[in-house]
Amino acid sequence: MVAETFLIYSNASPIISIIFIFPAASVFFVGVYMSLRSRLKGTKFVALIVVVALIAAGIGSVGFVLGKNANSPASITISNGYVKIDSSETGTINVSSSQITYAFVSQIHTGNLTIKSKQHGLNNNADNIGVFTLSNGATAYVLSDNSTNLFIKMNSGKYLIVGTSNLTGITSLFSKEVFPVSG
Fold this sequence. Notes:
183 residues; alpha+beta; six-stranded mixed β-sheet; four-stranded antiparallel β-sheet; 3 helices
């Protein structure tokens, strides 16, 4: 069987980029204003403007890089005998069928297992991408933009939680190719 990949796109990048663009612009304009008031002439004036522009560009670049990372799609790949997740927040995690204790479908924000806290990642409305602590204290690697998800408990006691709007497709393929999902 050929691997099938499901993508999740985060909505965080505009927010992250904007958070850094405003300070960058402020530094630039305040720096230019102060340079003009400093009464510096010639090369000293040009050097001050260049330094201010470089600082502003540095701040803006951080926002651009973080925003671009947050907009990178996260992927869930299911193939014969394994499931793989990949995102900038979780890295790449491969789980083979021999590493799985059980799998079931449940709500991520209600029921016995819910997200208690974020270790790192994105937790924005329905988007949950990253590493989280569950209500039972276990660590979970989560790639989801859906409230209903496939919970995969690994032999290590950690969880892999995946979900998209095509949860039926993910669950069906996972049951067929990797591990049976409990009803």
